[in-house]
Amino acid sequence: MHPVELTKAFRLVNHGPTTIITSAHNGKVNIMAAAWVCALDFKPPKVTVVIDSNTYTRKLIEAEGTFAINLPCVKQIEMVKKVGNISGADFPDSDKFAEYEIETFTAQEISAPLVKNCVAWLECKIISEPNNQDIYDLFIAEVVAAHADERVFSDGHWHFDGHDDLRTIHHVAGGVFFATGKEC
Amino acid sequence: MHPVELTKAFRLVNHGPTTIITSAHNGKVNIMAAAWVCALDFKPPKVTVVIDSNTYTRKLIEAEGTFAINLPCVKQIEMVKKVGNISGADFPDSDKFAEYEIETFTAQEISAPLVKNCVAWLECKIISEPNNQDIYDLFIAEVVAAHADERVFSDGHWHFDGHDDLRTIHHVAGGVFFATGKEC
C-alpha cells in the first residue's frame, strides 16, 4: 500500500469498478458491496455513492460522517458476494468482518477500517446534502486520503498486466462480474 | 438494436463503462465523452451524470431537458477520444457529428440523436435539481427508454465472448482505456 496523490485519486474509480464500503461508529463496524460509486470532481476529489436507506451502513455513515471506499479484486469475489448479500444488522452481537474473517487495517484520516488485500482505498468525508440523501439515497463525499497497491497502481496509472488476480471487478447484476480487461 | 426492459436498464451501466452523451436543442446537436455516469435507482431507472458547466452539451441538455447515454465499444475508441477532446462550441457553423462523420439514428422518446455502432443506448429525461446542477455539475435523470445490440446484451445480460471489438470501455485518464474483461 502506498499513498495516492489526491489530485490523482479520481483515477482509482474512473473506470467504474465495483467497491466495498466500510464504516464505523461508536464501536460498531460494517462492510457492504456497492457498485454505484462514481467520481464527481477532481480537486478537491469528490465522489457520489448510493447507499440504500435500509442498510446498516447507512446508519453508521450518517452518524459518523465518514466512510471508506475499498476496491476489491478478482481473488476477492466470493467475499464481495457474501458482504453484498447479508446485512450487518443480522449480526447484532458480532459483525460481518468477524463472521467472514475479513482482515482490516487502520485508515489514516477516518474511523472506518480498510479491507486487507483490496487494491485501492479512498477515505471519504460526507458533504451533507440532506435532499439528495433523503430522496435519492445519494451521498456526496470528499476524498480526504487515498492509497493503492503499488503492484497494480503507481504514478497515477493502473497496470494490471501480470496480476490477473489483482484486477478490479465490475458487477452487472446477480453476482455476475467482469474483470477489468485489456488496456486499449 | 433491440429494446431493453426498463427494469433491466441499470444493467447497461452497472459495470461502470465510459459513455458518450448526445444532445439536441432547437436544431443544434452535440456529442461528448463522459465517464462519470452512474446508476442511481432501479424502478423507475435513474442515473447520475456529471456534465461540466463549460461544455456545449450542458447548454443543450439544460435547454432541452433530455439527453442520451450511448455506450461505445472497443472499435470506437478513436472516435471517443476525438469527441472527448474538442468542444462542439468550436464548430459554430457545423457540429461534431458532421466534422467526424459520426452516423446516428433517431431516438424513440427524446430529440437527441443516438450514435450508430454503439452497443447500448439509454434515453434520459432530466429531473430538475438546480442545487446539484449549479454546485456540483451533477444531473439526475430518469431513463425513459433503453436499447442494446443483441449480439452482446440480451435477456438482461451482457455476453461479450466472441465479440472483443464490441466490448464496452472504461476510461482511466489521458486517453487510457480498459476493455470490459472476462466474466468472473
From TrEMBL, chains A, B:
Q: Known SUPFAM superfamilies for this protein?
A: FMN-binding split barrel
Question: Which InterPro entries does UniProt cross-reference here?
Answer: Flavin_Rdtase-like_dom (IPR002563), Flavoredoxin (IPR052174), Split_barrel_FMN-bd (IPR012349)
User: Origin, by domain of life?
Assistant: Bacteria
Q: What cofactor does this protein call for?
A: FMN
What's the EC number here?
1.5.1.-
Q: Does the keyword Ligase apply?
A: no
One MF term from GO for this chain? oxidoreductase activity
Asked whether the UniProt record includes Metal-binding among its keywords, one would answer no
Q: Which UniProt keywords apply?
A: Flavoprotein, Oxidoreductase
Q: Which Pfam families match?
A: Flavin_Reduct
| Ranges of residues in domain Flavin reductase like | 11-164
What EC class is this?
oxidoreductase
Family, as annotated: Belongs to the flavoredoxin family.
**Know the name of this protein?**
Flavin reductase family protein
